């Protein structure tokens, strides 16, 4: 199919982009176009004006400021995954990006676009939630920021106002010696995940858990943190038994839906498996875990 007619405007500055967005209540931002163009072609989106932010080179950056890794709105997924600051400070972000679609998608798709788009099967909203990221935006009322915990409100829905543009996402860096893991299950390589999990684990030198962060995606209309499993782990030795128990507790608190791709039971079972395995993999990346017997 072909898209419904629309007006195309390429903004030269962030201010111009905000003005263009405000001028048409049916306007939409286009960044990498990797989600929006298919939606236009299928006529699932019919914007009056497309405001292209691709020329905003000032927003094409990755930086580390005050303990946060910041990714600007026009930085592509491929560039972010390959960036030395990401490799050094936030490898879990690179690992998550590597599971997005195919290289052609990652070469044009942006990190901020994925977060603004908020597909519940997408990797990056879950990473943002696991790390308590801040989403920075700009609109007619000036700058605004959203905590990831309240940003993702439902399938393809966020707290972002229609006249606001995401300008950057700030990921707080995990404390030193935090282990991490990212895993997902998809039917084929490059497909959207059925279920995925992000785990971050910090222990003391003896292997007692000081902090656990877990986020699942593909099990609800938004990514979900697993506070019961996180609390169960904290203060306990990081053992395979503890990880299995955390997985059981996590599964008990999930209420996934069934669809043509997978049943609710299957998603719950896969989620539990991923919680246990990502915790074990995250522990293996901690100083205590890397020397412990598996
Ligand atoms: C074949 C295929 C496979 C894919 N597989 C995956 C996958 O496995 N995992 C995954 O997560 N994604 C997948 N994607 C989607 C891809 O990751 C997109 O790049 C991403 O979802 C959106 O980023 P974008 O920059 O392309 O945004 P666009 O497509 O340009 O925009 C998407 C939406 O976000 C809004 N938006 C974008 N940027 C901003 C901004 N800065 N401020 C406000 N609103 C904004 C747009 O208005 C639009 O509503 C796939 C896409 C394709 C075509």
UniProtKB/TrEMBL annotation:
Gene3D superfamilies, alphabetized: 3.30.465.10, CO dehydrogenase flavoprotein, C-terminal domain, Uridine Diphospho-n-acetylenolpyruvylglucosamine Reductase, domain 2
Record's signal peptide: none
Domain named FAD-binding PCMH-type: residues: 1-176
Lineage: superkingdom: Bacteria
GO MF terms, alphabetically ordered: FAD binding; oxidoreductase activity
Keyword annotations from UniProtKB, A to Z: FAD, Flavoprotein, Oxidoreductase
Pfam families: CO_deh_flav_C, FAD_binding_5
This protein's name: Carbon-monoxide dehydrogenase medium subunit
Organism: Actinocorallia herbida
């Amino acid at each position: 199919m072909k898209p419904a007619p629309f007006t195309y405007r390429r903004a030269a500055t962030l201010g111009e982009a905000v003005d263009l967005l405000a001028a048409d209540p049916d306007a939409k931002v286009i960044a990498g176009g990797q989600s929006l163009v298919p939606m236009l072609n299928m006529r699932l989106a019919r914007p009056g004006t497309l405001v292209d932010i691709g020329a905003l080179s000032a927003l094409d950056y990755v930086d580390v400021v005050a303990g946060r890794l910041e990714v600007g709105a026009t930085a592509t997924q491929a560039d972010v995954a390959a960036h030395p600051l990401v490799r050094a400070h936030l490898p879990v972000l690179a690992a998550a990006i590597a599971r997005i679609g195919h290289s052609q998608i990652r070469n044009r798709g942006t990190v901020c676009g994925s977060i603004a788009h908020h597909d519940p099967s997408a990797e990056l909203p879950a990473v943002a939630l696991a790390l308590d990221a801040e989403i920075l935006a700009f609109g007619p009322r000036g700058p605004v920021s959203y905590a990831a915990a309240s940003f993702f409100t439902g399938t393809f829905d966020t707290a972002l106002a229609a006249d606001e543009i995401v300008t950057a996402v700030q990921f707080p860096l995990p404390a030193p010696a935090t282990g991490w893991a990212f895993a997902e299950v998809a039917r084929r390589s490059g497909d959207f995940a059925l279920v995925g999990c992000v785990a971050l684990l910090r222990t003391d030198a003896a292997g007692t858990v000081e902090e656990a962060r877990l986020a699942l995606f593909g099990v609800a209309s938004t990514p979900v943190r697993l506070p019961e499993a996180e609390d169960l782990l904290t203060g306990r030795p990081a053992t395979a038994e503890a990880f299995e128990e955390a997985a059981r507790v996590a599964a008990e608190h999930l209420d996934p839906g069934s669809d043509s791709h997978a049943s609710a039971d299957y998603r719950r079972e896969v989620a539990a498996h991923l919680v246990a395995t990502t915790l074990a993999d995250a522990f293996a990346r901690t100083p205590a875990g890397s020397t412990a017997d598996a």
